[in-house]
Amino acid sequence: MKKDTKVICFANNKGGSGKTTTCANVGYSLWEMGRRVLLIDGDMQLNLSLSFFSEEQVLDMAKSERNLYHAVCDQKDLKDYIVRTPQEGLDLIPSSTLMSGIEFQLFTKWQREFILKRCLSSIAGSGEYDYILIDAPPTLGGWVMNILCASHGIIVPVEASPWGLFGLANMFEFLGQVRDMARDLQTMGIVITKVNTRKNYFKQTMDALRELKEIPVFDSYIRIDSTIEWSQDNNQPVAAYRKSSRSGAEYRALAKEVDEYAW
Fold it and tell me: What are phi and psi of 93, to 5 degrees?
């Protein structure tokens, strides 16, 4: 029996939360588990694309017409914009620096909040992928609303730092505002990133998050690990760069939680 494709977005309006790194590494870890995964780079910074391709390749894709920006602007079926990564069964729809102007492009469109959902409908309904993971930009607005309306679940990475929780209330207020349109959207949980267990910030972050009502927190958390930076420098997910790394194991544990939640 064919399972429905699960569409999950990774979003936080605060930059530096580890959002893109979490999206890339959860996607890779799900692929390691035998899941078929499509990643969508929804951010003009192109970092999700850079997690799998060289800078030269990513810039070439960004300058071409085979990227998310052109697909959304032209309201095209996204299946024609898929790029294969070196891992068979783990694919990507790349972004473009032109995404900085996507809000303007969406403004005059009919039912603009659902354009991405319509572009994704063919892929999501085909059963070709078990997961579609979307990396949202660190903003709140019409484009992020599009991403939320296209998703079944949202994961919110939060940095374990004095500033990590700053703006989180705005994020969840925004989520509340789009609930009527994003009827399928579930808050899967918050994942704590950039953790230093020797610092009080981690405990303070955890204590503050436990006080939030009806917002789950994943058991898995991601500690600071220089291997992550090295893997990014080599355009690879951390588990591909160094399979035995601590952070690779932590992302695998998180991906297992995500998979158990989804199914």
Answer: -110, 110
SS3 26: helix
Per-residue pLDDT of the chain (263 residues; tens, 9 = 90+): 346 899 999 999 988 899 999 999 999 999 999 999 999 999 999 999 999 999 999 999 999 999 999 999 999 999 999 999 999 999 999 999 999 999 888 877 778 889 999 999 999 999 999 999 999 999 998 999 999 999 999 999 998 877 778 878 889 899 999 988 888 899 999 999 999 888 887 888 888 887 887 789 999 999 999 999 999 999 999 999 998 999 999 999 999 999 998 76
Q: Is residue 263 a part of any domain in this protein? A: no
Task: Give, as one character, the DSSP assignment of residue 194.
Answer: S
Closest CA to 223 of 240, 199, 207: 199
Tell me whether strands 90-93 and 153-159 are parallel, antiparallel or unpaired: unpaired
Does 71 fall in a domain? Answer: yes
Q: How many domains does the chain have?
A: 1
Domain range spanning residue 227? Answer: 6-257
CATH code: domain of residue 235: 3.40.50.300
- Report residue 12 as tokens: 């936080």
Q: Alpha-carbon distance 117 to 249, whole Å? A: 33
d(CA 77, CA 242): 36
Instruction: Report the C-alpha gap between 69 and 100 in whole angstroms.
Output: 9
| Cα–Cα distance for residue pair 169/211, rounded to 1 Å | 13
